[in-house]
Design a protein that fits this description.
about 120 residues, two-stranded antiparallel ribbon, 5 helices, 2 strands
C-alpha cells in the first residue's frame, strides 16, 4: 500500500539555476497559428450566422407584409367581424325582461343628437 507524503520535494541547486531563455520555455508551447486560424474561422462563422438571421428576418417580414396587403384574414376572425357588424346594423332584443333593445348604431347616434339638441333648447328657454 502506497502512502502519500506531504513533505516538499527537494530540488537540487543545479536544477534551480537555469538559462534565462529556458526559464520561459514552458510558455512557448502556445500554438499561435492554430489560435489565429480558430479565431478567423469563428469570425467568419459569426458573420455568416448574422447574415442568415437577417435573411430569415427579411424573408418572413416580406411574407407578413404581403399577407397584410392582400387582406387575407382568418375565417374565424372574418366570421366574428361579420357577426359584430350585423349586430350593430340590426334590430333585436338584448334583454326582453328589462325592455332593453338593440338598434342600429346610426339610428342610436341620431337619437342621441336629437335628445341633446332638445335638452339644449329647453335649457336656453
Amino acid at each position: 500500500m502506497a502512502v502519500a507524503s506531504l513533505e516538499p520535494k527537494t530540488v537540487s541547486a543545479r536544477s534551480q539555476v537555469q538559462n534565462p531563455a529556458s526559464q520561459f520555455e514552458r510558455y512557448d508551447t502556445i500554438d499561435t497559428p492554430r489560435i489565429v486560424v480558430v479565431g478567423f474561422i469563428s469570425a467568419i462563422l459569426t458573420f455568416v450566422v448574422i447574415l442568415a438571421a437577417q435573411a430569415i428576418f427579411f424573408a418572413s417580414d416580406n411574407v407578413e407584409t404581403q399577407r397584410k396587403i392582400t387582406g387575407e384574414t382568418p375565417s374565424s376572425l372574418a366570421d366574428g367581424l361579420t357577426q359584430q357588424q350585423n349586430r350593430l346594423a340590426g334590430y333585436g332584443w338584448v334583454d326582453p325582461a328589462k325592455g332593453v333593445v338593440n338598434i342600429p348604431i346610426s339610428e342610436a347616434m341620431r337619437l342621441v343628437v336629437e335628445e341633446q339638441h332638445k335638452l339644449k333648447k329647453a335649457g336656453t328657454e
